[in-house]
Amino acid sequence: MYKLVIKGGKTLNGTVKIAGSKNAALPILFASILADGPLKVNNIPHLSDVSTTLRLLMDMGAEFILESDNSLHIDASKLTKLTGEYSLVKTMRASILALGPMLAKYKKAKISLPGGCAIGTRPVNLHLKALEELSAKIEVKGGYIYATTDQLIGTDIHFEQVSVTATENILMAATLAQGQSTIHNAAQEPEIVDLANCLISMGAKITGAGTAIISIQGVSNLSGISHSVCPDRIEAGTYLVAAAITGGKITLKNARPQSMQAVIDKLIETGADISYGKNSITLDMKGERPKAVNIKTSAYPNFPTDMQAQFCALNCIADGQSAITETIFENRFMHIPELSRMGAQLTLEGNTVICKGVKSLTGANLMATDLRASASLVLAGLAATGTTTIERVYHLDRGYETIEEKLKLLGAQIERIQD
Ligand code: UD1
Q1: What pLDDT, on a 0 to 100 scale, did the predictor assign at position 345?
Q2: Residue 171 CB less than 6 A away from ligand 1
Q3: Distance from CA of residue 358 to its chain's centroid?
Q4: Three-state SS at 384
């Protein structure tokens, strides 16, 4: 087991290159099941969730080659096993994204139910109901989803709640359905637009991705193409907070500011100077202590739940009192007890955390609990006085490519050590 050891108090300065988006890369890799030939996917991030996806696809019969320039050649066009095994699915909930493509292409799929996770129960009822509306027969037994169809038939899908991966699953399934499908109350995240663009290059007929209504005209087959994954707006936001929390100045390369306006607006509210270049963002905190900001998470284009924990860390050392309300997941405050151990003044009231900013946090031994909570502990450790040790680093490796190397380049004192 590895842990991160951070000697806090260093101001971050410099330039960091943002990787391809995890949440765009995963559905795009699953979309390769739909193609009749190999896909070349560029700007693939080096993350354990990507490795899990590739292991799952390989177990089903896919083949791939990863090049040194972060491009991946994947051929999932002839699967030999239409089962997503529990042993792989349990480590990554996004594995449910195999269901729509498998069912659309092979008219049959068996995939383990993902189960709950640290941030909530996270059911998949929306995915299953919408697939049934597309004429699939779904049965759940022994912890597995069994899905069959004679032919998926396009229809109107009305999601009762906005869901990112449910929108992606149905979007992928509908590309090979017979006739027209319309998804109402679709999620509008940039990662859905990236997936739709990839599917359109493959030959799919899709309009409206990035809005609440997506229309898909089914086609009989899709082909292999080359596609570049969009930059990771959550990784980008996390590094901007790292600069803000340490009073530093950093430039992000390979970033897309237009996809992260809600986060940038909040950073400006903390007192940060933000400027833009071509595919780059610079944040300058000019050595100032950030001002506390109130936040309410909600679906895109509003403030993302995946940035809530990082801003919670920032508010801990900010000037003033703040309230952060989480509306997407019911249990996404696992970072609160750990931040409190560093001297943060946090009180949880229902789904809102009230924070009284303190001038500084003190380093402590901490336990990472989930991906974004872990990122918040790293940020707190960077700002704290003394040494912070973070155990269970594997949570961070799911979504941050070589985080300690990138932070070191910005001047942080951080090491990954083996227990
Ligand atoms: C995706 C992202 C994740 C992000 C989340 C919300 C990926 C791989 N993951 O997760 O990083 O935090 O969006 O922006 O893209 N729900 C149901 N039934 C369902 C599906 C969802 O009740 O069938 C609920 C969830 O429990 C949650 C809400 O809907 O309360 C939104 O979740 P959803 O958008 O589905 O999250 P994911 O797609 O799993």
Answers
A1: 98
A2: no
A3: 30
A4: coil
